[in-house]
Amino acid sequence: MSADPRRDGEPASAQSPPEPPAPSGTGGLLGRFRDLLTRPQVAPAAGWSVVARLPVYLMSLAMVLTIREQGGSYAQAGLIAALYTLGMALGSPLIARHLDRSGRRGVLVLTGLAYPAALATLVWATRPGSWAQPVLAVAAGVALPPTNACMRSLWARMPLTDEERETAYLWEALLTEVLVIGAPLMLAALMWSGSAGTALTTVAVIGGAGALGLACVRLPASTEAAAPTGPHTAGADALGIPRHPLRDPSMLVLLGVMTACAVPIGLMTLAIPAFVSAHGSPDGTGVVYACWGVGSAVGALWLGRAPSRIPMRVRFPRLVLAFAAGTGLAVLSTSPLTLAIALAVGSMPIALVSAAEMTLVGALADKRLLARAFTWASLATVLGDAVGQQVGGLLIEPIGPRGVFTLAFGVALAGAGLAFAGRRLPVPDAAAPARCAT
């Protein structure tokens, strides 16, 4: 899961005209996507950001396949992939800090060049067991272009209405689901026509080109740097000084909810194949997994087809509770078929929860610290997922897949409880719709 939030920073106006009713049906949501993503000053940034994010969702797998292809063991492949992830975790907050301070161009150009260079050197100039390969894996992780944080902070600064901004974050959540499913298929196609090393290098170069393209896109001046803020700005203290995301109680609660929602994902990542295998159908694991992702994408299109008028601080705990209830459906499964149905139905709120998280991150964070806020939100979900996978791996044998499903349900309920408890903390109301000048 990711984070999605937004705050306008403009004072609410009682004179704002009411919004026209949104069209209903899936076509309504697709129409909103089309209207938003085809705007002249939005389309180039959105398009290049998709290209730049391709490596994020398949690079760890590509590294494992490449190291194995070079003759390395699974232990060596796992170490290189882990060091790459460690580099991402260590480098992303530092990269985000520069992104907030100096803007996107310099950061994206530097990382867009360094990232493919580090990975190409790892593939073609090193071999498993050499000292250079672990160093280059960490360097590549550090140099990963911060496209997620960059694009989500741009959505938060673009002159959009609140409804359009929520549509943008719903697009981000849906895009994640599509890339999670589609990026490995792209890797498989590249490997079919060449080696794993060639595929990894190709994807790295494509991602770097996407970062360079996003760096060169011309956007409204208001999106390049945060506007001056005052003492009443969300995310700022009484003197108007931006408060670091990790020092904001409301943001800490939100990050806690995001971590709690990611832990069940990690737990179920281990429990699903164990459950399918225990029922004598290990070959069907991929199909069951696909139902999980497809359900989330369908949920975004169906449940998000019309914008809600309920304030986000009220809506978010309800969405997290719906996510918890959907997680609990897996406990009732009795066969791979019923598990696939449970996952398809239960995952429908996932993308909406992710979009709501991003909306709230953008709403709580000071505009001068948006990249850092979104980066810490991403790290919270990565941490939760990693903890869930580790715990799931340890508990599969002692308590079985159903026991792990039950634990995932309990953790998700705890996340919902934290979300309901945190709704009393100050969250800025949605500002009056700011009409887009474009």
Describe this structure in words.
The chain has helices at residues 26-37, 43-52, 59-69, 74-102, 104-125, 132-143, 147-157, 162-192, 196-216, 249-278, 285-303, 312-328, 336-346, 350-364, 370-422. The protein is globular, with a radius of gyration of 21 Å. With 438 residues, the protein is an all-alpha fold. Helices cover 69% and strands 0% of the residues. The chain starts with 25 loop residues before the first helix and ends in a 16-residue tail after the last helix. The longest helix has 53 residues, at 370-422. The protein is built from 15 helices and no strands. The relative contact order is 0.18.
- Taking Cα atoms only, what radius of gyration do you get, to the nearest Å? 21 Å
Report how far the terminal alpha carbons are from each other. Answer: 31 Å
**Number of folding domains?**
2
Secondary-structure element string: HHHHHHHHHHHHHHH
The helical percent reads 55-70%
Q: What is this structure, in a nutshell?
A:
The chain has 438 residues and is mostly helical. It has helices at 26-37, 43-52, 59-69, 74-102, 104-125, 132-143, 147-157, 162-192, 196-216, 249-278, 285-303, 312-328, 336-346, 350-364, 370-422. The longest helix is centred in the C-terminal third of the chain and has 53 residues, at 370-422.
